[in-house]
Amino acid sequence: MGSIGIAKEIAAKGLERRAILLPGEVGKLIEGGYQVFVEKGLGERIYISDDKYKKAGAKIVSNRKSIFNKSIVVKLKPPLPQEFKLLKNNLLFCMLHAEQHPQYVKALKKRSVKAIAMELVRNRAGERLIQCTDMAGEQGMIMAFQLADKIPSDCSVLVLGYGAIASGALKIAYSLGAKVKILRRSEYPHIKHFVRNKDIVVNGIIWPKEKRERREYLITRDMFPLFNKRAVMLDLSVDYPNPVETCHPTLLDKPFYEVDGIRHISIFGYPGLVPVSSVKRYSKQVLPILLRIASTPFDKLPKYIKNAIINPETYPF
To answer: Could you report the per-residue pLDDT of 90-131, keeping only the tens digit for each?
Structure first.
């Protein structure tokens, strides 16, 4: 595949500051023999000028249409509706989260676009190869402590799960001296006992699809009186519905909301709170996978990438 277009992230109120690739990684794409087109202002919100991309060998483009018509279009977040309209018969490589947003798959089909979802690229052990999962847990926990009415060492914290994202939250909670309880699966039936007198409850578990479809919950609204007054419900999940009945996604401009006096944080994209650090990691992770995609015929991509292909013709809506 020939040309690569790297699109600037567009979000209301300029909230999304990240870029998917830094000049150093762009330079390596160009060294690999690829034409790289960077949208003007790609890195300006993380203090990287267009000149740095230009010095790396990229062509700076101000016309968005000429970015989205390249053979491979790379960006961090899913395209907006007006961006989908600019795609046609090419390949999109981004965080797509199609299961939560099936309308994206329908848009791909309408524009005859192939897509590879970054969040689905995994190694043989099932680990994501493009992720800031631990960083998300860390930033969510920091925000939860900021909303708590106590210093961290006075907070009683319950954490559901102990995977990568929960581990990030645990790292911050332990380092700041909070009293932490990790809820084990075997303890789920006794959830009412464990939420009692908690200042922060953290959801860091993957909720099975069948439970989401049946609207089954682990923490229900009627349990909130058991929490301490003005407690915080920190949701680190991207699945909705999820184990907490009252959770729904929030954005960076309005990161939390209240239900019955319990403050809920449920940001879709916690790494956006630390754009400089998250971009640095994403850029290094994306480069080798993008080089493989660009250098390999689509039907001969390795299995770990094929598993991340979103096929609009066969997608289970």
So the answer is: 999 999 988 878 899 999 999 999 999 999 999 999 999 999
The set of long-range contacts for 188-197, using a CB threshold of 8 Å and a minimum separation of 24, is 188/218, 191/218, 191/219, 191/223, 192/223, 192/226, 194/158, 195/158, 195/219, 195/223, 195/226, 195/227, 196/226, 196/227, 197/156, 197/226, 197/227, 197/228
Three-class SS state of 200: strand
Do 36 and 109 share a structural domain?
yes
Question: Residue 197 sits in which domain range?
Answer: 133-273
Contact (CB, 8 A) for 21 and 291 = no
pTM: 0.90
Rg (CA), the chain: 21
Question: What is the per-residue pLDDT across 292-307, written as a single tens digit (0 to 9) for each?
Answer: 999 999 999 999 999 9
Residues 219 and 281 in one domain: no
